[in-house]
Amino acid sequence: MGLSVGLIEPRIPPNTGNIVRLCAATGVGLHLIGKLGFLLDDDRLRRAGLDYWDQVDIWVHPDWPEFRHAISGERCLYFSAHGVRSHFEAPYMHNSVLIFGSETRGLPAKITNKYPDKIFRIPMKEGVRNLNLATAAGIVVYEAIRQLRLSVGCSIEMADGQEKSENMSRALRD
Question: Would you call 109 exposed, middle or buried from its count of C-beta atoms within 10 A (0-12, 13-18, 19+)?
Answer without folding.
Answer: exposed
